[in-house]
Amino acid sequence: MKPLHSKTEKVLAAFACICLSAVLSFSAFAAEKTYRLTLAETWGPNFPIFGDATKNMAAMAEKMSNGRLKIRIDSSNKHKSPFGVFDMVKSGQYDMGHSASYYWKGKVPNTLFFTTMPFGMVASEQYGWFYHGDGMALMEEVYAPHNLLSFPGGNTGVQMGGWFQKEINSVDDLEGLKMRIPGFAGEVLAELGASPTNIAPGELYTALERRTIDALEWVGPGLDLRMGFHKIAPYYYTGWHEPATELQFLVNKRTWERLPEDLQEILRVAMRTAAYDMYIQNAHASAEAWEEMTAEYPDIQVKQFPDDVINALRSANTKLLANYADKDAQAKKILDSQQAYLDKIRRWTSISEEAYLQGQ
Amino acid sequence: MKPLHSKTEKVLAAFACICLSAVLSFSAFAAEKTYRLTLAETWGPNFPIFGDATKNMAAMAEKMSNGRLKIRIDSSNKHKSPFGVFDMVKSGQYDMGHSASYYWKGKVPNTLFFTTMPFGMVASEQYGWFYHGDGMALMEEVYAPHNLLSFPGGNTGVQMGGWFQKEINSVDDLEGLKMRIPGFAGEVLAELGASPTNIAPGELYTALERRTIDALEWVGPGLDLRMGFHKIAPYYYTGWHEPATELQFLVNKRTWERLPEDLQEILRVAMRTAAYDMYIQNAHASAEAWEEMTAEYPDIQVKQFPDDVINALRSANTKLLANYADKDAQAKKILDSQQAYLDKIRRWTSISEEAYLQGQ
Questions:
Q1: Domain annotation for chain B: domains and CATH numbers
Q2: Measured between beta carbons, which residues in chain B are less than 8 angstroms from residue A57?
Q3: Where is the signal peptide (chains A, B) (predicted)?
Q4: ipTM, two decimals
Q5: Mind listing the pLDDT tens digit for each residue in B116-163?
Q6: Dihedral sign, CA of A212, A217, A218, A223?
Q7: B284 vs A contacts (CB less than 8 Å)
């Protein structure tokens, strides 16, 4: 091709370039625009399972968008504020967060209900409530005034009741029991005379070993293994207080609204899949860790709380929830919705998965 | 702008157009290329739950790809070959299929093991085997020689044992029992003297009503409701034979390979999410349908097979599986992998979800 010489030719070429860029700006350039989001997670770097959920989500989003949606994950060592995630995403300092809704109950009381509740739904039931009951709509109602969207962010399944230095044979054994059990479940235990305490994770092992505390709950074998509690406490109680702990993805609403529709859908599906995936990963990791724990420490005794203890805990739980419902119409609406859904779906769970497992 | 006149100008404009299209073909046009895939499903049009999984998957893929990946779903009324899905996707007549792996056992015996097995894993366990155990790799090995990829396509959870006209109180009651129960579970029952039959879905109601058959199994309340069996059979037995029925998405390998990487990931994630979503949708639908059935027919009796019946069925199952393993090294590898995974993860399920549900 011969080089351009005349003025006319230069004008023409410029015209072609304008047309070209006009066309591109409505197709290629717009389609190729990269959105870089930041995410603050409550967990430290390389925290297993919980931290894998954010990495899995971000990797799916980036790959599905062909690199147009990039999410940078900052762990707590970076942002220094594990329990500041709500505020940092609300203010727009971060576009997204990964945490758990019940951490915000001191700030926005009704966020308590979107993680898990004592004696509440198991994972398949709670996902039913979120996606086919009123769960997502109610969660949106609670978070909207804070400029936030909240999505399920990974389920642990039934968490264990915890590691105990002594057996719990009756309600009397709870009197004065010093147990690390934070949040609402701690309030339930306190109703029965126990002394719930919160202790920094790094000090838990020593506190349990030296009997500064009599018991503690963490998660389940998958995350308990590396904490080492099985080496120093003989009893591992089955769960009652967190039957389906669902983590959360938080998204700043303005961030959400400036994403094009295809990237909104990519982000929505990536979060949803990462949440389900974490539920399966945690079941797998728990099975592996439980095998390892019991191979090394075959004397670990798995215990269920006796019926009268369970019934007393249930009564205390019911009483505390009634207090919430009495004081706040939105709390009542959420609790009523959960109870109605649980009543309906548990009848199905009982004749399907529960009956099957019992018959094995 | 003045119109183009001279020959030079025309050449120039043409040059600009060539440059323009060259640029576009490597960005906008390539990025905007639409891939139109076809999917044949085993189910009829508007089949609830199973059919929703394909629609959900296709909708997510289209939206996430901004219309670049469009999947046309043909139900059985269109392609006329519900059990020809394997062959139609293998040959490339369709790009994708939605069906169930165990339908192909007459054609490729080892496909039997990728749906669910009597006395096998429940859904959370089986997803663990697929995604963290050897499940996906083994499924790939079985399907690769047929130019097919297979992915989980939606789980029903524990299927009910079926509707019975008479109670089963002992193994003797199975002798001569005429039951609609197709596939491998039917073979297990036949070992104990029952007469498994297969009857077209449209004739099942009449057959059960007129006692041409004594019993039948379908799925669970969510899909059984509209079949009406609860109106004519008094006993609803809990499940043993299909604890985690996983449907399947089939993809022709050449179709998969010609998709760009971002669309492969979009398709992979859309299938994975649609599968999980169906598990939750089916739990929800079962709960709703069970409420409706029992409100209208409060005398339905839910029964569990007695222990000696369960033990006899388990022995027959073990014997038949041993036959498969003895005859075929790949079958043995798959069955050994499933059993080892089940043994490990059931120990976890027992102390978590099972213990929790029993304590409620």
A1: 33-153+246-284 (3.40.190.170), 162-241+299-327 (3.40.190.10)
A2: none
A3: 1-30
A4: 0.91
A5: 999 999 999 999 999 999 999 999 999 999 999 999 999 999 999 999
A6: positive
A7: 128, 131-133, 345
